Predict the structure.
Amino acid sequence: MPLPQKIMTTPAGSGRTHWIVGNLMTCKVTGAETGGGYSLWESVVPAGVGTPPHIHHNEDEAFYILEGEIEFTSGDETLTLSAGASLHAPRDIVHSYRAITPVRMLVMAIPAGLENFFFEAGREVTPDSPAPAEPTPEDFEKLLATAPKYGLEIFPPGGPE
């Protein structure tokens, strides 16, 4: 896919937004806009919310914490990060996170494609859609059913046996 030959911007407050099991994800740059190089989104995570343990087989992830405090876990290691910290999660390792306080962070997937998982597995936010109070069992079922299509493995709490 050829790279665009112009500067692109995403104005503040814009981007395609989805709820993904309690995480509010706003895509700021898609793979279509970067020739497949990367995707970038802003994630807002309420305190106590996070992701189940999972593995990405298709992409690396980079996280930059803008606000709040969050725990990242991989195997037996748990790291606590706060505003200004970053983390690189290479593909093919089990990892998860949980917000200790409300968190706002930037997340990049390299190469692009993970944004399409969020678009398909999440609930799109529109101007008239209310914020979901809690993820439903149906939200988790959709997440698990969609994950293999995008090279993701999702595990129960505690990770793979």
Q: What stands out?
A: The longest strand covers residues 60-67. The chain has a mean pLDDT of 90. Residues 137-146 form the longest helix (10 residues).
